[in-house]
Amino acid sequence: MFKKGLTGFQIKLIALFLMIFDHVHYFFSFTNKIPLWFTWTGRVVAPIFIFMTVEGFIHTRSRVKYMGRLYMGSLIMVLGNQWISRWFPRGDDAALMTNIFATLFLITVYLTIIEYLKKGIKERRIMSVVLGILGLVLPVAIGILMMMNLHVPGMIHAIFLLPTPMFVEGGPVFIALGILFYLTRDKKRLQLILYALVSIALMPWQNFSLQGIFYDNFQWMMIGALPFLALYNGQRGKGMKYLFYVFYPLHIYVLYVLSTFFA
């Protein structure tokens, strides 16, 4: 049955299009020929994919397979980043670090733990509640230990292989955003209000000036995703399950390799 608004597929296509602008600026900003508004438009991309990942987690037939695809995507990016950087080194030694899959995977891990915790509370199983709370704290604790032992041989590989809030793209803010989308999934108005408040809270209040909000710290511009979230009609839309899994690394590596000819 057709519903007004945008399907998940349509919203993803919009995000993919805007992501190209964002990454063109990311990889070619050193040329001073890419306008800053390219990356302004890109601020809406990560929140949209976080939102759609939560939707996917809720509606997927197999959460294990869903989480497995995200983790495999993360591993492929880790290996791809290393190999592409080695084969096509940039003259300015810029590192290839992009990997949103790790963030999305970690969000699904937290959502799984939250569901386990909620079930334990509902059934009044103290041990389940304790394990659930420990599960929420564990990724943070592991991340802190990693930060304290960066000098240990092989630790950098562990950081990439075991996603933690401190080391994934977007950090704790993006993880919290995924949890927010999940907890408010049945309360659309509250969801949009809280999302707007989070976006506003990210404004550089200590340096509140045109320079500060438009050039120094413009992550608050993710509020631009608000209309797309509001227009989501709850329908999946067309298939193409693996479009994002293929397009994301492919366009990043194409842009990165092209940038090596200018650096």
Write the layout of secondary structure elements.
Layout: H1 8-28, H2 37-42, H3 45-59, H4 63-87, H5 100-122, H6 126-148, H7 155-161, H8 171-183, H9 188-201, H10 210-216, H11 226-231, H12 243-260
Helix pairs in contact: 1-3, 1-12, 3-5, 3-8, 4-5, 4-12, 5-6, 5-8
Summarize this structure briefly.
With 263 residues, the protein is mainly alpha-helical.
Percent of residues in helices comes to 55-70%
Computed over alpha carbons, the radius of gyration is 19 Å
Shape: globular
Report the biggest beta sheet as strand number plus sense, adding barrel if it closes: none
What proportion strand? under 5%
- Look at the helices and sheets and give the structural class: mainly alpha
Helices, by number, come to: 12
End-to-end span in angstroms?
Answer: 51 Å
N-to-C series of helices and strands: HHHHHHHHHHHH
Multimer state: single chain
Q: Work out the number of β strands.
A: 0
Contiguous low-pLDDT stretches (5 residues minimum) are: none
Mean pLDDT, all residues: 93
Number of domains as seen in the coordinates: 1
Describe this structure in words.
- With 263 residues, the protein is mostly helical.
- It has one domain.
- It is built from 12 helices and no strands.
- The longest helix is centred in the N-terminal third of the chain and has 25 residues, at 63-87.
- The radius of gyration is 19 Å and the shape is globular.
- The protein starts with 7 loop residues before the first helix and ends with a helix.
- The mean pLDDT is 93.
